[in-house]
Structures
1.
Amino acid sequence: MKQKIALITGGSRGLGKSAALTLSAQGVDIILTYQTRHAEALAVVAEIAAMGRSAVALQLDVSKAGTFAAFVAALHQALEQTWQRKDFDFLLNNAGIGVHAAFADTTEAQFDQLVNIQFKGVFFLTQALLPLIADHGRILNVSTGLTRFTLPGFAAYATMKGAIEVLTKYLAKELGARGITVNVIAPGAIETDFGGGAVRDNAQMNAFVAGQTALGRTGLPDDIGGAIAALLSDHSGWINAQRIEVSGGMFI
């Protein structure tokens, strides 16, 4: 049976790191990307290796589509050297940033940064990787609960994620002939350093989120990592073109 390999963008910390470790524990090998946190990425690789799995860290700035051809070349080399393969099985488009700004105060620079990272980067990186994704593989995009419910300050961010949710359906339709499923996972508020760590570090915000969540607490990275692993498992192959919210029941 062929060894499964997952490519996770933004895998050195937060949700990406949790997904990498959870998938590794389930027998999946990992290629993770990082932008600047090389030491943290290598620490994740070492942790995966300690589980007896193989992992590689590659540098990537998802906001710079002009670098994707060079990244694909580096990925080719990593696949050949580490796994003697020309393809991989799972793509998790996870890398992203958070921008909190009222609609009236959002600058063009903030908007363009979000477009480049959250939408354009996902669109053209996935396009560049299509020849390397194995038939019957999986693509999982990361959205946000903020496309269903609204909180002031996230108009631009949530709009980009809404675009990702539409793109997910089109990818599922166009890649179905290759047996590739494409879904989107939409986390609720999670205790990470995302967006400056506000949900994790601001007690007032943490309590607000917990009070609006049916399960009575904020989410943890492993809540999302576990859900990602479940959606990429052999048991989830008939789930396709779906938005799966993983929020503990926020705002219901």
2.
Amino acid sequence: MAGTQLPLEDTFGDILRKAMRGVGIDTPQLARASGVPADAISRWLKDDGAAGDEQARALATVLHLDGSKLADSAAARWYPPAVAPPRVSRHPQDPHPSNGYVFFLEQGRRAALVDPAGIPQNLLRILRDGDYHLQYILVTHKHPDHCDATAPVAQAFPDATIVMHSLDVPAIGSLAKSATMLRDGESLPFGDNASIRMLHTPGHTDGSSCFIFQGTLFSGDTLFAASVGGAYGDASTYGDILNSVRSKLFALPDDTAVMPGHGPPTTIAAEKAHNPFF
């Protein structure tokens, strides 16, 4: 997967904001509980500077984050290792700041598209230039920056099957009637000897899902390098995101490549070792 190095999706301020919202604490409360000045926390939330190691550890204690990993995030000491799984291609979802992916089988170029979003002509050019036989359109969740080009892609490839969780499928409108709605742990056949497995990972949205193919996890907005997605579910919560990662994603082999909806790729081992939320 060629291209320039992608920045991490979340800044130190973003991590603070997500954790504060998740545990239900505001800036004055965090300042009192941690001993870190409120004006400093306010600046960091605006990405004006970042905490030192001792301050980061004090904040982490209150926010139920890992202190050492949060300190590394504040100091920008860590970036994920280079990850380039075979037969996977990433593309930017302009004008959105999100990642889309195509993965394919070597024989026959049978392909699946993950998260059809952005300018439709860009996606159609990628698919046609690759001479792909598109079998699946996989949608990780309902937000527009991950599914707003579903209709034109489906129109251009009418034999492709749209796959999405039932809790988020209303986002694609009338296409929902023809979508395949998988449940947690179910698989799709892909070629003669391969399959794609779906994991339901609620929290970012109620129907947020990840897809696994041959040692590669397409994590949507559930798991990023050194962070997680924000909790915007109607019924699911911040706790559900953390539980989804711990119980389902961290149960995968350590060498599993993680291709997130935003930011650079990573691995399960790297996230266990460096993600401050765990």
